[in-house]
């Protein structure tokens, strides 16, 4: 029996998607629930599973096409599950000219964990995942692993994209690699660009700065880090301190937790904090709900979970929308100072930076202290300078004396 493979219902507020890459060709045997194709939306990568075991009879829509929910993208000829499994097993037999070493790697290496972005890169260069050594957790392959393999002498492939030779200028040493590469933006990168330009053109953005002495936070974290992880099964990071401090400050300055809708100001009596996460596909901002109701351990567990989903490309649209305030940490990349851009329609975003030992006057002494610059970018249409400065001072006070977080003062 022939079965139509259709685009599933897309997440709310997503009207279409890009068909990124087929994982099976016409004539291939597929198992029930096996991922057939990846779809890319503005934020997430979705998978389309096979509804039944069978043989892929026809592919109606090819890579790169824009699709909407309900579009028929392929025809599957349903077969007996046992027969399909046998056919699939036959497909996995090595080619006659494959080396014995490669076959052993496939048999003994076990499954290789990859994200949709990595799978696309492997397919673009006709690479087997077992050919590349993964550096991620549990042997997971990253894009950096694949790109490093492509640049090595072991690979006969070239870098993706159109290689355009450039005539060397006079005096340029012959043999110097002067090529250019042109690649289209991914939907995610295009959406990020669109939102950043929109924020610049819509909001009256201004940034205020302060610095915070993290001596007490670092001492508290060092004192309880091991027992915290042993009891709760998750690391005690800096982000939970900043998120909890930001939440307390938002309670004191509700306009910083507000958003603009036309000529209205929407005040939120809940605290859904977006945490910027760098992924292989670009920057994502998973939202952690009701941070004010969470313990440090609950926050750290939730953060670890959404960050893992974002990096694996399995995060849902509902986990990326609806935040009231955002925190971004450029310090993990070594940033000393920056001006973050608003995540509209939110009215403010907090930027964290590198912790550096600097000489500070403490009492009558000059001591080396672990200092961090903080940046608060805010929408001056609704947030006054006084509120923005005092909001940042409130965070500074809470972090320099963490006992305030427990007492909520």
What would the keywords be for this entry?
single chain, 409 residues, alpha+beta, OB fold (Dihydrolipoamide Acetyltransferase, E2P), Dihydrolipoamide Transferase, elongated
Report the CATH architecture of the largest domain: 2-Layer Sandwich
* Content-based structural category: alpha+beta
Number of domains: 3
DSSP summary, beta strand count? 21
CATH topology of the largest domain: Chloramphenicol Acetyltransferase
Spans with pLDDT under 50 lasting ≥5 residues? 88-109, 153-169
Specify the helix fraction band: 25-40%
Give the full name of the CATH homologous superfamily of the largest domain: Chloramphenicol acetyltransferase-like domain
Mean pLDDT: 81
Output the number of helix runs: 10
Rg measurement, Å: 26 Å
What coarse outline follows from CA principal-axis ratios?
A: elongated
Largest sheet: 7 strands, mixed
Query: First CA to last CA: what distance?
Result: 68 Å
Q: Work out the strand percent.
A: 25-35%
Specify the CATH class of the largest domain. Answer: Alpha Beta
């Amino acid at each position: 029996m022939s079965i139509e493979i259709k685009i599933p219902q897309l997440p709310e507020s997503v009207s279409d998607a890009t068909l990124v890459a087929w994982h099976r060709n016409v004539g291939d045997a597929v198992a029930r629930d096996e991922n057939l194709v990846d779809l890319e939306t503005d934020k997430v990568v979705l998978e389309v599973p096979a509804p039944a075991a069978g043989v892929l009879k026809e592919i109606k829509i090819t890579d790169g096409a824009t699709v909407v929910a309900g579009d028929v993208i392929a025809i599957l000829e349903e077969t007996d599950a046992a027969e399909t499994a046998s056919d699939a097993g036959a497909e996995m037999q090595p080619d006659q000219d494959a080396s014995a070493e490669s076959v052993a790697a496939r048999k003994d290496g076990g499954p290789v964990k990859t994200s949709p972005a990595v799978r696309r890169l492997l397919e673009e260069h006709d690479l087997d995942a077992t050919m590349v050594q993964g550096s991620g957790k549990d042997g997971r392959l990253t894009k950096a692993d694949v790109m490093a393999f492509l640049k090595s002498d072991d690979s006969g492939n070239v870098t993706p994209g159109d290689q355009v030779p450039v005539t060397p200028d006079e005096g340029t040493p012959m043999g110097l690699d002067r090529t250019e590469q042109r690649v289209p933006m991914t939907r995610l990168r295009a959406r990020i660009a669109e939102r950043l330009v929109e924020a610049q053109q819509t909001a009256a953005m201004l940034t205020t700065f302060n610095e915070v002495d993290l001596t007490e936070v670092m001492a508290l974290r060092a004192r309880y880090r091991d027992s915290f992880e042993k009891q709760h099964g998750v690391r005690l990071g800096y982000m939970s301190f900043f998120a909890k401090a930001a939440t307390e400050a938002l309670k004191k300055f509700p306009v910083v937790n507000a958003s603009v809708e036309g000529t209205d100001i929407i005040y939120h009596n809940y605290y859904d904090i977006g945490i910027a996460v760098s992924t292989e596909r670009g920057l994502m901002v998973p939202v952690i709900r009701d941070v004010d109701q969470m313990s440090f351990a609950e926050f750290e567990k939730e953060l670890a979970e959404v960050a893992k989903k974002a990096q694996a490309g399995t995060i849902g649209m509902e986990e990326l929308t609806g935040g009231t305030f955002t925190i971004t940490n450029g310090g993990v990349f070594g940033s000393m100072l920056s001006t973050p851009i608003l995540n509209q329609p939110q009215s403010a975003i907090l930027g964290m930076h590198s912790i550096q030992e600097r000489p500070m006057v403490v009492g009558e002494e000059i001591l080396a202290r672990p200092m961090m610059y903080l940046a608060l970018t805010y929408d001056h249409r609704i947030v006054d300078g006084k509120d923005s400065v005092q909001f940042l001072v409130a965070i500074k006070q809470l972090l320099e004396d963490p006992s305030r977080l427990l007492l909520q003062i």
